[in-house]
């Protein structure tokens, strides 16, 4: 018997460019709101990671901007939108905060004494239909 939520879930996932590939058959009984693994190269995951980085940069006292260097693990949960749970490594760039640079054009520090890498956990909640992003958790060390 098919679960009444599944068609909605599949639609929600497709509309937001979130593809969960190679889901084992046991996952087909998944309850609404259960987190599922999602590919780290997924566009939604990458956008969510960048939102987490923006939030980190806004709250840090560093002179330089940080940028995501590697997404280690990503989960997504469907709960009134998409809630991403991400483990991300971020590194200090050569761009100074005061310059308001676009992170895409910022390169990672090459100077040994200025290099820094942090391991972060971000929770990024995106509701596509309202274009709202809420970032309740940013934990970097």
Automatic annotation (TrEMBL):
Single GO cellular component term: extracellular space
A GO MF term: cysteine-type endopeptidase inhibitor activity
Key words of the record: Disulfide bond, Signal
SMART domains in alphabetical order: CY (SM00043)
InterPro entries in the record: Cystatin-F, Cystatin_dom, Cystatin_sf
Cystatin domain: residues covered: 30-141
Origin: domain of life: Eukaryota
One Pfam family, short name: Cystatin
Keyword Thylakoid: no
Signal peptide: 1-22
SUPFAM superfamilies for the chain: Cystatin/monellin
Entry's family note: Belongs to the cystatin family.
Protein name per the record: Egg-white cystatin
Organism lineage string: Eukaryota, Metazoa, Chordata, Craniata, Vertebrata
